[in-house]
Design brief:
mainly alpha; globular
Length: 273
C-alpha cells in the first residue's frame, strides 16, 4: 500500500513540475491541425485498398463524442472534392502537416523523461513522419482484420487442422483488433519517441494505461456530451469544434500521463534495492 501511495505522490509531483495540463493544451492544438491532413491522406489511399470511407470513419465514430463525426466527414468531403490529385502532388505537405501532432508528443515525452532534444531537426521531424506513417499502416491493418479476418481464420483452420474452438476464438479476437492495435501504437510511441534509449518492456505500463484510459475516457466523454451537455446552445456554431478540442485535450493528458508513468518506473529501476 505504501508503494502505491508513493507512486501517486511522485506522479502528482511530476504532473505539476512538467506542466502536464499546459502541454496537453498544446497537444490539443496540434491534434486539431493534424487530424484532417491525416484522415485526408488515408482517404486518398482507399481506392487502392479493399475498405471504404465508412470503414475508416467507423473507427473514429466508435469513440468520438457528439456531432464531431458530421464535422469531420463534411470537411474531408469538401477537401477531397477540390483535391482529386492530393495523393500525387500534395503527399509531402499532407504528411508533414499530419506529423505535427506526433512531433508535439515527442517534445512532451522528452519533458516527462527530463531529457533535451539533442537530435537534429531533420532526424526529429523524420521520426515524427515515420511514426505517422506507421500509425497509418496500423490503422489500415485494424480495418483489414475485420474484413479479411474470417478468411484468414479459415485458412489457418484448414492448413493446421485446428479445432472448432480455435475458429470461434479467432472470430472473437479479430473484432478486438482496435484495442489491441491501440496498445501497439502507444507501445511503439513510448518506446521510440523519447530522446532516451529505452527497452521495449519499459513502455508497457504507460501503453496499457493510455490504451485503456483513452478508450474509457473517450466513451465517458461521448456519453456526457450526448446526454448532459449542450455545447451548441452555449457556443453556437463552433460548439462542435469546442467539443473536438476538449476531446483532444483529454487525449493529450492521457498520452502524457502514460509517458510520466513509464518515466517513473524507468527511474525506479535505477534505484538500488
Amino acid at each position: 500500500m505504501g508503494k502505491v501511495i508513493h507512486f501517486f505522490k511522485v506522479l502528482i509531483k511530476n504532473i505539476q513540475q512538467d506542466d502536464v495540463f499546459d502541454l496537453a493544451a498544446q497537444l490539443a492544438y496540434y491534434f486539431l491541425l493534424s487530424i484532417f491532413p491525416l484522415l485526408i491522406f488515408v482517404m486518398t489511399l482507399l481506392p487502392y485498398l479493399p475498405i471504404t470511407k465508412e470503414d475508416l470513419l467507423g473507427i473514429v465514430e466508435g469513440f468520438a463524442p457528439g456531432d464531431i463525426m458530421n464535422t469531420i466527414e463534411s470537411n474531408i468531403d469538401q477537401v477531397l472534392n477540390r483535391n482529386v490529385s492530393l495523393l500525387s502532388f500534395g503527399i509531402i505537405a499532407t504528411i508533414w502537416s499530419a506529423s505535427n501532432g506526433l512531433n508535439a508528443i515527442i517534445k512532451a515525452l522528452n519533458k516527462a523523461y527530463n531529457v533535451e532534444e539533442t537530435r537534429s531537426f531533420i532526424v526529429a521531424r523524420g521520426m515524427s513522419i515515420l511514426l505517422t506513417l506507421g500509425m497509418i499502416a496500423v490503422v489500415v491493418v485494424a480495418l483489414l482484420l475485420p474484413v479479411f479476418g474470417e478468411q484468414i481464420g479459415m485458412f489457418l483452420f484448414s492448413q493446421f487442422d485446428l479445432t472448432d474452438e480455435f475458429l470461434s476464438i479467432w472470430n472473437t479476437l479479430r473484432f478486438l483488433a482496435s484495442p489491441i492495435i491501440l496498445f501497439i501504437v502507444f507501445l511503439a510511441l513510448y518506446w521510440v519517441a523519447p530522446n532516451k534509449k529505452l527497452k521495449c518492456i519499459s513502455a508497457i505500463p504507460g501503453a496499457i494505461f493510455a490504451a485503456i484510459g483513452w478508450v474509457l475516457a473517450s466513451l465517458a466523454f461521448s456519453y456526457y456530451v450526448g446526454n448532459f451537455s449542450n455545447y451548441s446552445a452555449t457556443y453556437g456554431s463552433i460548439g462542435t469544434i469546442i467539443v473536438l478540442m476538449i476531446w483532444f485535450y483529454i487525449t493529450g493528458i492521457i498520452i502524457i500521463l502514460g509517458g510520466e508513468i513509464n518515466a517513473y518506473f524507468t527511474e525506479k529501476r535505477k534505484e538500488p534495492c
